[in-house]
UniProtKB/TrEMBL annotation:
DNA-binding region: 47-66
DNA-binding in keyword set: yes
Disordered, as annotated region: 1-20
Organism: Streptomyces adustus
UniProt keyword annotation of Transcription present: yes
Gene Ontology MF, one: DNA-binding transcription factor activity
Keywords (A to Z) from UniProt: DNA-binding, Transcription, Transcription regulation
InterPro entries: Homeodomain-like_sf, HTH-type_TetR-like_transc_reg, HTH_TetR, Tet_transcr_reg_TetR-rel_C_sf, TetR_SbtR-like_C
Protein name, entry field: TetR/AcrR family transcriptional regulator
Signal peptide location: none
Pfam family, one: TetR_N
Amino acid sequence: MEHAVQTATAIPVQRRHTRPRADALRNRERIVTAAREMFVEFGPDVPLDDIARRAGLGNATLYRNFPDRDALVREVVCSVMDRTVRAGEVALAETGDAFAALERFVHAAADERIGALCPMVSSTFDEHHPDLEAARERAEGVIEEVMDRARAAGQLRTDVGVGDLMVAVAQLSRPPAGTGCLSVDRFVHRHLQMFLDGLRAPARSVLPGAAVTLEDLRRA
């Protein structure tokens, strides 16, 4: 009997987790969402304490998920690119008109504030981080597929490249110097549509220079 008691007491007690994994994932997403909003509004140097406050969480929760600013900025940029990829995939799957899929993808990219976030890639952290490179490759692959389909359908002019589209979307969705990003939002989709109309085939003019490729962008 004594041996049985000793054996029973030796079995480790299984502790219950006080917070399910789903809660931790939701908190992480709240931090990323708040950071994205504040990076767009105030730039990448916004205090992390302010981000935690907007997310409705404590500082400890933020630092438990993201040990430093670089980690948080990288996660924000990767998540934006991943959502843009999903938008492109949905556009390809749901839109029978190839050029309409391209339009849908471009406007979705603008809604993600790509132009406001792009400067952080080169100025804030290692742009060759594996997570960032993987997200960039996924995004570039979807952009190429959307454009190839429109070009094959004879709807996209042949003298433009993926780099042309990426540069234009980034520039047109970035607020001009001296203006707030949110204050010019109402103009972004109007100007993007003007640009998209200029991509339609047949081309009405000859573009100077050559189509910009992804390799051109990497060398720039």
